[in-house]
Amino acid sequence: MTSGAGVGTGLGRRPLFPLYAAGFVTAFGAHSIAASLAGFTGQEHASLLTLGLLLAVYDGAEVLLKPVFGTLSDRIGARPVLLGGLAAFTLASALFVLVDNPGLLGIARFGQGAAAAAFSPAAAAMVARLTPATGHGRAFGSYGAWKGLGYTLGPLLGGVLVAIGGYPVLFTALAVLAAGVAVWAAIVVPTVEVLPKTRQTVVDLARRLTSAAFLRPTAALAGATAALAVGVGFLPALGSRHGLGPLATGAIVSLLAATAALVQPRAGRARDAGRLRDHSGMGAGLLLTALGIAVATILPGIAGLVCAAVIIGAGTGLITPLGFAHLAATSPPDRLGQTMGAAELGRELGDAGGPLLVGITATAATLDTGLLTLAALLTALALTTTLTQRRTTTPTVGT
Fold first, then answer.
1. How confident is the model at residue 201 (pLDDT cuts 50, 70, 90)?
2. Fewest beta carbons within 10 Å, which of 72, 96, 130, 251?
3. pTM of the model
């Protein structure tokens, strides 16, 4: 693997902010709609299966298309893929409003997910290309924090917009948001040259995507996303078991997301300063998430849920900037988009797999058993990430 994916532009951090905003768009777009889907399907007298499909279609589009668009950004440049994805997100949102047919919500969600699959890995690749290698931790920490802000505000603001005027108002807001970020990026984000490609066979690609340098951080990112999804989905279930209402459980979920958003920039700066190493930091983050999930099953009442939310948020916030910075530092610069797209695929699988694992285990046994099973897997992943660390031949910051 070649180091030095970050090239630096001498333009300061100004071009990075539209890229952070693109991360906010995909997170806000996913969660602002998902949080209100139960009410929508109830009004339309749809089944739970329909609800599940509407929840899955956005992530499904991302799983299918992120590696494709990541590779495309390496071929034609990340900037056009970024701008095209934001424009497509705007179009998918606006068309739903113009057509005014609730039955087309699934198609609109798929269009938004496909668009996010384009601009999300392109934005991550440009964050790496526009930042020197010594600043990757801080840059990806900020990028993750903006996404965390989208996850935090999405359910709240989405619910407010739906209450004001239904889904047309929410989709109009999403169209305006994506269009604004697209214009901002077109003005501020510079064109980054397409790097000459070294010849890559299918065997070369398979070898790179199965190497420890790729699998360890990607597995850690998937574990973090699984823990975050389980926290968002199952902490409210534990709260209702303890007699807490939707307002209290919603506040706990927001606390989890806010903690992750606050921790990420600080973890990134510590990594860049050499105070935090990638593998040991990711291992510590995985252990924290495992501890947080276990705490939710052990400590009773709201105190246990609050502690769990803070610990899970801190753990996931520690992992995310370290994982992406490590991928950027160890990926061939001409394959950054492909690497980020494949890593995002791993995150999406964690996002879907974590709740699925807990749900299946809880159905067979109890919810506590399901949560503790995930905690045990995260602990094993933490030990694997830390104990199988090998020295790379190319020195990188924070490795």
1. low
2. 251
3. 0.78
For residue 54, the surrounding DSSP H or E stretch is helix 48-76
Let me know if 103 is exposed, middle or buried by CB neighbors in 10 A (0-12, 13-18, 19+): exposed
SS (H, E, C) 161-205: HHHHHHHHHHHHHHHHHHHHHHHHHHHHCCCCCCCCCCCCCHHHH
Contacts of 322 (CB under 8 A, 6+ apart): 137, 217, 220, 267, 268, 271, 276, 278, 281, 282, 285, 398
Q: How far apart are CA 85 and CA 82, in angstroms?
A: 5
Let me know if 359 is exposed, middle or buried by CB neighbors in 10 A (0-12, 13-18, 19+): middle
Tokens of 339: 């690497």
Residue 313 has pLDDT above 60, yes or no: yes
Distances in Å between the Cα of 19 and the Cα atoms of 13, 189, 265, 334, 338 are 11, 8, 15, 19, 18
C-alpha torsion 271→277→280→285, nearest 10: 10
pLDDT 10s digits, 171-190: 999 999 999 999 999 999 99
* Half-sphere exposure in the Cβ direction for 33 (13 Å, CA): 30
CA 114 and chain centroid, separation: 15
- pLDDT tens digits, 218-248: 999 999 989 988 887 788 888 878 887 767 8
Q: What torsion, rounded to 10 degrees, do the Cα atoms 319, 37, 249, 352 define?
A: -30
Q: How far apart are CA 236 and CA 233, in angstroms?
A: 7
Residues 6+ positions from 11 with CB-CB distance below 8 Å: 130, 190
Nearest-angstrom CA–CA distance, 379 and 124: 28
Q: What's the pLDDT at 330?
A: 86
- The token pair that represents 211 in the structure block: 């190497």
DSSP for 310-344, written as a single string:
HHHHHHHHHHHHHHHHHHHHHS-GGGHHHHHHHHH
**Which tens digits make up the pLDDT trace of 254-280?**
889 889 989 999 999 999 999 999 999
For 233, counting Cβ atoms within 10 Å of its Cβ (0-12 exposed, 13-18 middle, 19+ buried), the class is: middle
Position 22 scores a pLDDT of: 95
